[in-house]
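Raw record, unedited: Ribonuclease P protein subunit p29
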Amino acid sequence: MNGVVCGNWSASSSAAVYAYIIYQPLPEKEAKDLGLEIQSHKKSQEFVNAFIKHCIPNVKTLSTGEYMSRKAVVLEYSQEKKKRKQHKAKGITAKERRELKLFTVNPDQQRYHMYLPLHELWKQYIRNLCLGNRASAQPQMIQMKLLKADLHGAIVTVFKSKCPSYVGLTGIILQESKHIFKIITKEDKLKVVPKLNCVFSVEFDGFISYIYGSKLQMRASERSAKKFKSKGSIDL
């Protein structure tokens, strides 16, 4: 075949091209040496044409000879792409985390003074986040920064709450989940405080900010990417 075969190959299309080349009349001498019976040209041509039309169904208007003698033949791609299943890394469940006690603070580690260095690191982090808490900084800007900030290590106070027993509770945030804070107090007691129905005050470098717990009801990683509206919150 004089043309150049290109495109995506399928098993049937490849067989059609090879059939066109292979099923050519053999010279009489070679056929006699091999002991083969030479079929008539018309019969062999009919077989090849039928085989090619079966393998390449798009050939309708042109004859197979004209179609295969073109300079370029684009063969039909019939093989379907197999969808690869993406195996996601399977993490441990909440039940398994509880059984392993990954987030449990042991009683010997419930000491307020042990987490004062963590609070100092948090103050450095929040100063960098709020651009040094400059005097020219607007309170709304600092408020929005605190809403998105990581509060692990911050000293917070429950300013208001529908449950009176929480009011006045002060301590360092050790753990934060979607709905609660775990706070270690100066009396070395670990308290679990719900975010809902509570208003928290956060103080650093003389600046006090009041944050509604309902705005914090999400994980810290999710809160950092959330866009908060600037309008005020409803009081308790």
